[in-house]
What we know:
The protein is mainly alpha-helical and 373 residues long. It has helices at residues 6-21, 26-37, 40-44, 53-72, 74-88, 101-131, 134-153, 157-177, 209-246, 251-259, 271-281, 286-307, 309-313, 321-345, 352-372, and strands at 91-92, 95-96.
Amino acid sequence: MSHLTFLEAGVVGLIQGVTELFPVSSLGHNVLIPALIGGSWAKDLNVAKPESPYLAFIVGMHVATAIALLIYFWRDWVRIIGGFFTSLGHWQGWHPRVATRDERLAWMIILATIPVGLVGLVAEHAFRVLFGKPILAGVFLIVNGVILYCGEKFRSRASVRADQEVAAQRAGTLAAAGPAGGVPPGTPPAAQPGPGPGQPGPGQPGPGQQALRQQAAGHHAAAHAAGHQAVRDEEISDALASDQRLARVGFTEAVIIGAAQILALLAGISRDGVTMVTGMARGLSREDAARFAFLLATPVILAAGVLKVPDLLGPLGNGIRGQILLGSVLSGLGAYVSVRFLVRYFQTRTLYPFAVYCFVFGLLSVIYLGAIK
């Protein structure tokens, strides 16, 4: 049996964590990169090979990625799970009565996850074996680039309007809040902070210069911490506003958006990418489509990992559990940093860079792999 090296585990683990949430297909990269490097990488990291230890490695990375998502969105999941149990407390006929934002969002996620869950249970092995070939992964990565480009280029008018409404809502919130820290607008110079009696002014060191420097450093650290907290508070506020908008989406729309994840069973098609494109096609703003995609990805990735844990604990994991741990840690870190970046990115920016990347990388991969075959 071939085994993974720590170098292979570290490189692929980090790439997995980043590409799982970027709309560029983690599975496509997991298939393509080993084949492009060749040698022992192509042999050790063959996802389509039966009884490959790479499968156990992928299980660990999926679990780590899901944990990273749960850590980032933990406040949201506490609310959403609470909404689910609250909805079970009051029934209306044959189904629970769903009234609040969190109750609706909980059931939207459940219903949207059912299609990909059923198809994944039945056809995941067939998809992996039949379509987990490097050249096919390159082809599907090209297709993914086309999907992202067309999804952005031909966005629905409702999605464009939703973007404008979200931007206006955020601008109104920031205007009402005023500047974060500092002097309120319109404060006259005389009323602004400055050197007090007995305090040295600019360019006047004074006898307590060292103490003042230490005090300034402390103030700087406190300001930095306050600034970090302000950013986090803004993220939480944006999340609540986004969930309020998502809760207005119908359950049928949620199922349609969630069903798009089925395409991600094909190596090269991005789960988050196709979910975002479908969400925008159904009228969601880019920001809300991205958030819904991340929320939908969490239970799917976690379930995919947990269901395959026996592979990790069984013979396939023998001799590579240290490598799995390294790859999983790097995968989790990469996923956490990525989701923090992407949540902010999709507030103002588009899918075009990812579309170009997928198309170019997929095309070059197909040409190279075809030439060396």
